[in-house]
Amino acid sequence: MAEISVMALYDQIxxxxxxxxxxxxxxxxxxxxxxxxxxxxxxxxPTKKDEEYKYTNLKEITEKGYNFFxxxxxxxxxxxxxxxxxxxxxxxxxxxxxxxLRKELSKVSIENVEFLSFNYALNDDKHKDIFDKYFxxxxxxxxxxxxxxxxxxxxxxxxKVPKNVVIEKPIHVFYISQNQEENTFYNTRNLLIxxxxxxxxxxxxxxxxxxxxxxxxxxxxxxxYPNAKADWHKVxxxxxxxxxxxxxxxxxxxxxxxxxxxxSFGGKLVRNNLDFIQNGSNINSFMNGITIIGKDQLVDHHTxxxxxxxxxxxxxxxxGIFSGNSHGVFNGKVFVxxxxxxxNAYQQNNNVLLSEGSKIDTKPQLEIFADDVKCSHxxxxxxxxxxxMFYLRARGISKKEAxxxxxxxxxxxxxxxxxxxxxxxxxxxxxxxKLEVDIEF
Length: 441
Hints:
Elements: E1 4-5, H1 9-14, H2 18-23, H3 30-43, H4 59-62, E2 65-66, H5 78-84, E3 92-97, E4 100-101, E5 114-117, H6 118-122, H7 128-134, H8 144-152, E6 157-161, E7 171-177, E8 184-194, E9 199-208, E10 214-224, E11 229-236, E12 242-252, E13 257-264, E14 269-278, E15 284-293, E16 298-307, E17 313-322, E18 327-336, E19 344-353, E20 359-368, E21 374-382, H9 386-393, H10 399-412, H11 421-435
Parallel strand pairs: 3-7, 6-8, 7-9, 8-10, 9-11, 10-12, 11-13, 12-14, 13-15, 14-16, 15-17, 16-18, 17-19, 18-20, 19-21
Antiparallel strand pairs: 1-2, 3-4, 5-6
Helix pairs in contact: 3-8, 9-10, 10-11
């Protein structure tokens, strides 16, 4: 199929593009898809005139042509997949290639849970009530990208962890694009439900094996129930012909803990939208990020935490290292409702610029309507500490190695709450590779 301009998407669908409608026909989503397309038409893609995108120009991705129907055929080998692994012999992993779940490249040993590919779940009548209850209930319909995802979503997974079930093995989810002759557009959708007292850890990574461009528009909804724990780790280390718009929404009930860690090293343009909704008391929410980019890459982190009930805590710690002509953006918001007394909210964004062409736009924000709270935010932008550099150089360490060691130490504390050792080691190695320093593990 010939490429379709993203900007002409709505017109194509309204003209009753039969192949598209048939490929996405799901009995209980048809009307929702049409409504989402109508909202997309009224919103249009955001431009730099929109406050939320004033620092991020999307013209590079929205003016390209894309194929919305990726070729399913591939020749990914297990050896190629092994190179993407973290050395996690005891993990489970789920592999999607060109949008389709590939069982032969996956290893799923988890029991007593409901796990389905998203497309299969949409066609399974017994899951209709679950989707009616959860699907798109916390994902914002005010964004062109989330509406576009709702209209197009087909690829991804659904996982429901029942009450008091602890999944001991982390689950690594791979999204791979390969053997595509045209620029390709994926709309991935994930739905994670962690019931009372349950526990699960997810690792998500995207990989483009082609020289053609890939645009991934991903939406994830996470529901964490009382005394449950959900950790979601995003490893973003794709090639220079990859674009990623990632929108993750997490809703927590009382006494729960949810963590989203985002490690951004690769990809031409990456936008991470992260929205936490605290819907009970004694909730803990953790958001950590490490960004190391160069050349003309752009990584944009937009976070929001909604403190709606008392005695809750949230922590945001984002570190950025920028070289070449790269551009970083951090916009973090904390909202504290008048009912949310005894809130403890911490937000910090620290950045190092290594070249004259690199830049960072950072804007931490607090909006507080309660009076008995502990809330702090801050940001720093600068170069490396000259005294520390002198200390290392005086001990015979080269300038390049001294710089790399200081940058490694600077970024390292943003991953201290990772309790998956292979993942922590992988991120440490990626840090060392990006900084070109030898670190022993």
